[in-house]
Design a protein that fits this description.
Helices cover about 35% and strands about 15% of the residues. It is of the alpha+beta class and about 160 residues long. It folds into 2 domains: about 70 residues, Beta-grasp domain (Ubiquitin-like (UB roll)), CATH 3.10.20; about 70 residues, DNA polymerase, domain 1 (Orthogonal Bundle), CATH 1.10.150. A 5-stranded mixed beta sheet has the order 2-1-5-3-4, covered by helices on one side. A hairpin with a 2-residue loop joins strand 1 and strand 2. The protein is elongated and about 50 Å long. The protein starts with 7 loop residues before the first strand and ends in a 7-residue tail after the last helix.
């Protein structure tokens, strides 16, 4: 267990790079990523875990970074949507218009990536279950569903999830 009192200098491993940060004990991973590491992909939509716009991967598991203390990420691999550049999932969202305003898109991409890494042959129920933790207030989800299906098809046809 990591114990921090007051301000503490530390390193976070984000998208394959070490990011020096100064942590306060109660600071969320979302705030530290945005305000100190300059990583803007995760968004603070609700900051109480409802919308999923802040989703990142922590050791390969999708988490809502607004609910994770930054100190919990010390010594662990954090991947944000910026770390998935040129992935099949990101390409599929772009090609299928799996977004409208874009605010929620990073969260959907992160959950889709994690889903297809662990369950590349997920059925419709599994896909809907995985993506139900993310909200989009602009679209009817049709473009998002098409993007997930295209990414899954490409991955099943031997394209790696991440290039």
């Amino acid at each position: 267990m990591i114990v921090i009192h007051g301000l503490s200098e530390s390193l976070l491993h984000v998208n394959g790079e070490e990011c020096p940060v100064v942590l306060r004990p109660g600071e969320s991973l979302l705030r530290v990523l945005r305000e100190q590491a300059g990583i803007m992909g995760p968004k603070g939509g609700c900051e109480n875990g409802d919308c999923g716009a802040c989703t990142v991967l922590l050791e390969g598991v999708p988490v809502k970074s607004c609910l994770v203390l930054a100190v919990e990420a010390i010594g662990k691999k954090v991947i944000t949507v910026e770390g998935l550049k040129d992935s099949e999932v990101q390409k599929a969202f772009h090609e299928m218009g799996g977004f409208q305003c874009g605010y929620c898109t990073a969260g959907f991409i992160m959950n889709t990536y994690a889903l297809l890494e662990t369950r590349p042959d997920a059925d419709e129920n599994e896909k809907n279950d995985w993506l139900s933790s993310n909200l989009c207030r602009c679209t009817g989800y049709e473009g998002i569903q098409k993007a997930v299906n295209l990414a899954q098809e490409r991955i099943q046809n031997n394209h790696p999830v991440r290039k």
